[in-house]
Specification:
Number of domains: 2
Organism: Enterocloster lavalensis
Helix content: 40-55%
Strand order of the largest sheet: 1-2
Protein name: Bacteriophage Gp15 protein
Distance between the termini: 61 Å
InterPro entries: Phage_A500_Gp15
Number of helices: 9
Order of helices and strands: EEHHHHHHHHH
Largest sheet: 2 strands, antiparallel
Number of strands: 2
Pfam family, one: Phage_Gp15
């Protein structure tokens, strides 16, 4: 497999062709961040988008999910089992993320007809200096309770909306919050 990008996943002893473009995978990521979807619905979205053939036998669905997650994780396995702290949001960070990826790639990646998810993530992993890396560093430090450098404190004060991850609520939760805000004035 060295040097080759997967275009199919083996499930139940059968190869299933998959969609590999980063835009489709980002759509899956958005579904997983959607508070309106329950876990079953999120997995259904993932399987529907990723696998071109939707005729996966019911008994093979757990393996199809496992293989899909392996693909989304770029072939890495999470032995830790501890969920990572959320320090980025694909949708919220889009405006600062793509310029950083474009800088690494040396081109506008959104203009490319097709870019394999693993290639996209390779560019992502090589992001160094810039607004996105600064925001990410500040979020990581804050999530771990570490002290920010003076320049980071100033950057944070001036760019709170960029640095703070927005909490997403279901429509029901948001309606309750709005009702409480209305009552409290």
């Amino acid at each position: 497999m060295i040097g080759r990008l997967p275009s199919a996943l083996e499930v139940g002893g059968k190869l299933y062709k998959i969609r590999t473009d980063f835009r489709e995978i980002l759509t899956i990521m958005l579904a997983f961040a959607d508070p309106e979807l329950d876990e079953r619905e999120k997995y259904a979205v993932m399987l529907t988008i990723l696998y071109e053939d939707h005729d996966i036998p019911a008994e093979d669905v757990p393996e199809a999910i496992e293989r899909a997650i392996w693909f989304l994780d770029c072939g890495q396995t999470n032995e830790d089992k501890k969920p990572p702290r959320k320090v980025m949001d694909w949708e919220q960070d889009e405006s600062i993320l793509f310029p950083s990826i474009n800088k690494v790639a040396g081109k506008e990646v959104r203009a490319v007809e097709h870019m394999h998810w693993w290639t996209f993530m390779g560019y992502f992993m090589e992001i160094e200096d810039g607004t996105f890396s600064t925001v990410l560093s500040i979020r990581q430090k804050r999530s771990r309770g570490k002290k920010l450098e003076k320049w980071e404190q100033e950057f944070y004060r001036n760019n709170r909306a960029l640095c703070d991850l927005k909490t997403r609520y279901t429509a029901e939760e948001q309606a309750e919050i709005d009702e409480w805000n209305k009552l409290l004035g």
